[in-house]
Specification:
With 151 residues, this protein is mainly α. It has six helices and no strands.
């Protein structure tokens, strides 16, 4: 059985063991035996995962900002604000770990806003929501400003 077949089989049969093996090979500088193709695939997957998580958290954040700003249901305000704080904290942590994702967050605001808007309009059809994001788009504002507080 060739080494490539063993690597492929290990990758397909036990991802964790494959990861441990690749890490060990990299640490020992055994680069000729590293399963490069699958390593590249896994690294690409990690990069895509972080971008998808930014979009998911940003969409949830914008949904709850929309609800908090435009839905007159005071009994729900606290829960929406808790979700806003949680999503902001998680986004801040991701951006602290990977500052290059800031550009992705800013570029995703319109897309996430449109999906969030569709969702809140469906859930709260009796309320009026703006067609476009009405607030500052800079990261500092999106992650900190309490848009629902006037003045």
């Amino acid at each position: 059985m060739t080494q490539a077949m063993v690597k492929q089989t290990l990758y397909d049969s036990d991802l964790n063991l494959w990861l441990e093996t690749v890490i060990s090979q990299l640490r020992s500088r055994d680069l000729q035996n590293v399963d490069i193709e699958n390593l590249i695939e896994e690294l690409e997957g990690l990069a895509g995962r972080d971008k998808r998580e930014i979009i998911s958290r940003l969409k949830t954040l914008l949904e709850h900002i929309l609800k908090r700003c435009y839905v007159d249901m005071p009994n729900e305000f606290r829960g929406w604000e808790v979700t806003i704080r949680t999503q902001r904290f998680e986004l801040e942590q991701m951006l602290e770990q990977s500052p290059s994702l800031k550009r992705h967050l800013i570029e995703s605001i319109d897309k996430c806003f449109n999906v969030a808007l569709k969702d809140v309009r469906s859930e709260y059809s009796q309320y009026k929501f703006p067609n476009t994001w009405q607030f500052s788009r800079d990261i500092e504002s999106v992650l900190n400003q309490e848009f629902w507080k006037k003045g």
